[in-house]
Input
Amino acid sequence: MARGLNPRLGPSPRRGRRAAWFALVLGVIGVHGCVTDSVVDSLATVDADAAMPARMEVAYVREMTLGAPPPTASPAAPPAAPVAATTPARKPKAPKPASAPEPMPDMVPAVAEAASAAAPEPVVAAVAATASSAASSAIAAAAPASAASAAGPAFEWPASTRMTYLLTGNYRGAVSGSAQVEWVRVGSHYQVHVDFIVGPSFAPLITQRSTSDGEITAQGLAPRRYDQDIRFLTKARPRQTVLFDAGQVILANGEVYPAMPGLQDTASQFVQLTYLFSTRPELLKVGGRVDIPLALPKKVDTWVYDVVEEETLATPFGPVQGIHLKPRNERTPGTLAVEMWFAPQLRYFPARVRFEQDADNYVDLMISKPPDLEK
Output
């Protein structure tokens, strides 16, 4: 009998094991993403049925050329011709009492049996350890320096940009796929789209789409809404939505937290870091640290990264200088580490992102071509 996906028998054990592991990896993508510790169906209490903001479409006409880092820029006022905020009007729900996590297999019905039988214990422990470490971190603001304290010309937001990545990795054999980060702006209205495909594009094991919609301000990006959709084989998880409204953030489980200055979601953080590094390049000095507050679908916390070294990345289109950031969160056996390389030659967009359990189990995203630009 042929191996792989059978319409009657379902995914093979080998394919099911890979899908189960990547379900966990995608759970922390985007600098830890959503912590996979409970059943999505029972937690999706935020009114996510309201129509998502329409996806802004642009035409990409040229590729970005590698060059010297842009001159140090001061934060600037948001672009002209602002577009009305797209946050749906709603009454925040009161926080729900915390409930004990339900068994892991229930999280992904499409691969529940395979996950229960084949998912390695260290990977499950990795997610639990990540959640525990993040929960104990102190919540702190990470607002950028004011225009008065920064020197140089005013910061100019990049035109709409599309970053394309090659996904490679290993888990009981080589795995591959693709990823894309798209930054779109019209006036002061922005969207960031992060798309992942694990497996071949014509028959993916897992697809994930995350969208941040909000406004550009003098302090950087101000998300208004974040949506995340994940599909495992032919089974889709319920959408998870985070709303930023009137000084507070409403998570996908209905819990409400105050909105910290500079608070981002797991998609907007990539472009917000580009903004921070463009206006405060000293943050990328080797030996320094970078803090960014994040609203995940089920928690709010501040992530701390150490700037460890400068590296030359061997991309398919030539060498690119990358500045390597590693999470400070204490690493325990089996935990997933998320590392990023930001490229000054590419306007500080991330050129590489790596998710690693250990030397033999990892996922690596490497930029595959120069970024596409709208103009």
Summary: Confidence is low (pLDDT under 50) at residues 1-10, 30-48, 82-151. The CA atoms of residues 161 and 373 lie 5 Å apart. Helices lie at 13-26, 40-43, 112-118, 121-135, 269-279. Residues 13-367 form one domain.
